[in-house]
Design brief:
Number of helices: 0
Strand content: 35-45%
Mean pLDDT: 84
Number of strands: 10
Radius of gyration: 22 Å
Largest sheet: 4 strands, mixed
Low-confidence stretches: none
CATH superfamily of the domain at 39-138: Immunoglobulins
Order of helices and strands: EEEEEEEEEE
CATH architecture of the domain at 39-138: Sandwich
Distance between the termini: 83 Å
């Protein structure tokens, strides 16, 4: 028995998606439970604002985001390379949202030694099975003032 995942869903990594046996008419076999996950619904990047002409934005991380549905029924934290982030690249985030509709994505903690993105929040509209690209959250590097003696006299 081989099946495709329903539209908008994928099989989990390392799950066997095909069970093949020599079935005979009139026999019954239990193949166990098959699970599916929704395809991620939104993705974005985090950068310090510098651009490489070949690679594009330089990615930085980790950072933390609060993702909230427009009706306020669902809200959860997404940490770069954490349990809710489905992109293993530091600075790239991909999330699976629970339903289509309006969502708010806010950066709550910037990468270390960087300012929070300005603006820190963005609103998106997600269609079922159609991932939304939020672009980049730009986090400029903090300029640290060192109060030392004045070298010029």
């Amino acid at each position: 028995m081989c099946e495709n995942a329903p539209a908008g869903y994928v099989f989990p990594v390392n799950q066997i998606t095909c069970a093949a046996n020599n079935l005979k008419q009139g026999t019954t076999l239990d193949f166990g439970t098959f699970y599916v996950n929704p395809v991620y619904s939104a993705f974005w990047g985090v950068s310090n604002g510098f651009v490489d002409p070949v690679q594009g934005y330089y990615l930085i991380g980790p950072s933390t985001f609060k993702v909230t549905s427009g009706d306020q029924l669902y809200s959860y934290d997404v940490v770069d390379n954490g349990v809710n982030d489905f992109n293993p690249v530091l600075g790239k985030i991909a999330v699976k949202l629970l339903k289509a509709g309006a969502w708010s994505v806010c950066e709550t903690q910037p990468p270390s030694n960087h300012w929070n993105a300005n603006p820190p929040c963005t609103q998106i509209s997600v269609a079922s099975g159609e991932p939304a690209n939020l672009g980049y959250f730009i986090n400029h590097e903090k300029q640290v003032y060192y109060p030392g003696p004045n070298p010029i006299r």
